[in-house]
Amino acid sequence: MVVADSRGQPEVGMSEAERLIVREKVVALMGAFQSGVTLTATTVAEKYKVPFVVALATSDQITERGYKFVFRPHGTASFDQKLLLNFLINTGKERGRKVESIAILPDNTEGTQVPAKQWRQFIVEANNNKTAISRSSMTSRSRSAPPT
């Protein structure tokens, strides 16, 4: 087993995937934690026709690109997000409380920006299309919101 560290940076993940394939001659890759890193690393694996098992990253984009050498043995971000949102809504109902706000705090990588947009859409749909939280106000709202 050969280990590499992307340091959570998509560009490093891409160069490490290429190093592992070209120099280390690995026959398969597995990883990464961050979806942004996985998006770039799987592109390299596909280029070299080396199987890549997506162990943790959940961005839908990873497996929606039609790559033949990328495999994910678990759910996607949108699948997980819908489950979690339904859980939050149902838990609120069981406790006699309505979920009125949810903070979404993604980083700036593509791997988390797309799921954050999906979250906002799911929240709008769950709230009968009545409201959406703008990204610009999310951070300030989350900082000033009291814990509940």
Structure description:
The chain is mainly alpha-helical. Helix content is 51%, strand content 5%. The chain has six helices and three strands, in the order αβαβαβααα. The chain has a three-stranded parallel β-sheet with strand order 1-2-3, covered by helices on one side. α1 (10-22) packs parallel to α2 (35-48) and α4 (77-94) packs parallel to α5.
Class inferred from helices and paired strands: mainly alpha
Q: End-to-end span in angstroms?
A: 45 Å
| Unreliable stretches | 134-138
Helix content: 40-55%
- The number of distinct helices, counting runs of at least 4 residues, comes to 6
Q: Determine Rg (CA atoms, Å).
A: 18 Å
Number of domains: 2
Name the average pLDDT.
83
Shape category:
elongated
Approximately how much beta-strand content do the residues carry?
5-15%
**Sheet with most strands: strand arrangement:** 1-2-3
Number of strands: 3
Brief account:
With 148 residues, the protein is mainly alpha-helical.
Can you tag this structure with a few keywords?
6 helices, mainly alpha, 2 domains, 148 residues, single chain, 3-stranded parallel β-sheet, elongated
